Amino acid sequence: MIYSKELKEKMAFISEIEKLKIVYRQNGVFDKSRAENSAEHSWHIALMALVFQEHTIFEKLDILKVIKMLLIHDIVEIDAGDTFLYDTQGKDAAIETEKNAALRIFGLLPTPYKEEFISIWLEFEEKTTPEAQYAASIDALQPLLNHLITAKENENPNKLSKSKVLNKKAFIGTVSNDLWLVAQDLVEESVTKGLYEKY
Amino acid sequence: MIYSKELKEKMAFISEIEKLKIVYRQNGVFDKSRAENSAEHSWHIALMALVFQEHTIFEKLDILKVIKMLLIHDIVEIDAGDTFLYDTQGKDAAIETEKNAALRIFGLLPTPYKEEFISIWLEFEEKTTPEAQYAASIDALQPLLNHLITAKENENPNKLSKSKVLNKKAFIGTVSNDLWLVAQDLVEESVTKGLYEKY
């Protein structure tokens, strides 16, 4: 059967991103049977962005753009893998790999999606627009909740402390007072559960 | 720490939907290590809906609504489980359970999200609007691709035939000529791989 080059390119992209479902993250899932993956994480944050959209400092947000951003922002991990937030060296090393991955994977798409997705991905990475800042704050909030729900009591394999975690997440407060309250509350609950050192 | 009732309700919903990541479907993932779950499936179809939006018979589509629909449509499976498409009895039995699940889970949210999500979920189920019909066609197309990519050669445990599959998917042709061509092509490739009987 023959169909257009444009459709074939879209199918190549849609087939390629199947692989994001086997890129695993540090946190787990509800029954502790396996690690969370970047595809389901992306689904979770897209829904969070929808319901928290009125809790930011911004007067106007293009919520469709935020959702697109969150749905595609981790696709580069198909080539680059997931880097643990607190692994600073790993984060630096990943920058070039992730950029090449964006060009390769979004480059599978025809125009205008190729250009749009590369541009939205870069916007997310640069974090200068309201949409990118809001998306980043949601992307930073979700792991706090997910970790609290799915981690076993008193498990802190990376010896994370409350102050280290709050320091990494503090930018949420520049985007949303409400979400920063939620973040601090999740960290407190996690300390109580023994997931972070108290100081 | 104290924050508003509205935020607490939103967090209750966001925590509850964590469980969709452990609702497993019939198909697998790329490395065949486990079954696909409904959260990552929802992520996949949201992105498909984005890039295929100009391939329908409809002049205008509210793509944000389509994406919301696809992100939330399977959340009811947290209570009802995933029902295999070809299990007709199971599908009928699930209707009431799924409706109650929608009321319970979307009901965790404050106004206006509670009403909006219940209404969008019902719209998807009723399939009378362009958005719901397009969303349903994408939801039906993805498993064909996913199955072709992730299934082992010559595995057809449910003795599915090409005609049975095409029959279940034929409504895609009423929404999009292009996507129906793609669907038929995926089925042909799957027959070649031994995943469906030829007749």
Descriptive overview:
Two copies of one chain form a homodimer. Chain A has 199 residues and is mainly alpha-helical. Helix content of chain A is 61%, strand content 4%. Chain A contains ten helices and two strands; from the N terminus they run αββααααααααα. Chain A has helices spanning 5-16, 38-51, 63-72, 77-80, 88-106, 113-126, 130-150, 162-169, 172-175, 177-192, and strands spanning 24-28, 35-37. Chain A has a two-stranded antiparallel ribbon. The N and C termini of chain A lie far apart (64 Å). In chain A, 43% of the residues are buried. The mean pLDDT of chain A is 95.
Question: Which SSEs are present, and which pair or pack?
Answer:
The structure is a homodimer of 199-residue chains.
Chain A: H1 5-16, E1 24-28, E2 35-37, H2 38-51, H3 63-72, H4 77-80, H5 88-106, H6 113-126, H7 130-150, H8 162-169, H9 172-175, H10 177-192
Antiparallel strand pairs in A: 1-2
Give the class of chain A from helix and strand content and strand pairing: mainly alpha
Mean pLDDT of chain A: 95
Radius of gyration of chain A: 18 Å
Q: The biggest beta sheet of chain A, please? A: 2 strands, antiparallel
Tell me the greatest interface.
A-B, 52 and 52 residues
Please tally the β strands of chain A and state the result: 2
- Distance N terminus to C terminus of chain A? 64 Å
Order of helices and strands of chain A: HEEHHHHHHHHH
Shape of chain A: globular
Number of helices of chain A: 10
Strand residue percentage of chain A: under 5%
- Helix content class of chain A: 55-70%
Oligomer: homodimer
- Point out poorly predicted stretches of chain A: none
Strand order of the largest sheet of chain A: 1-2
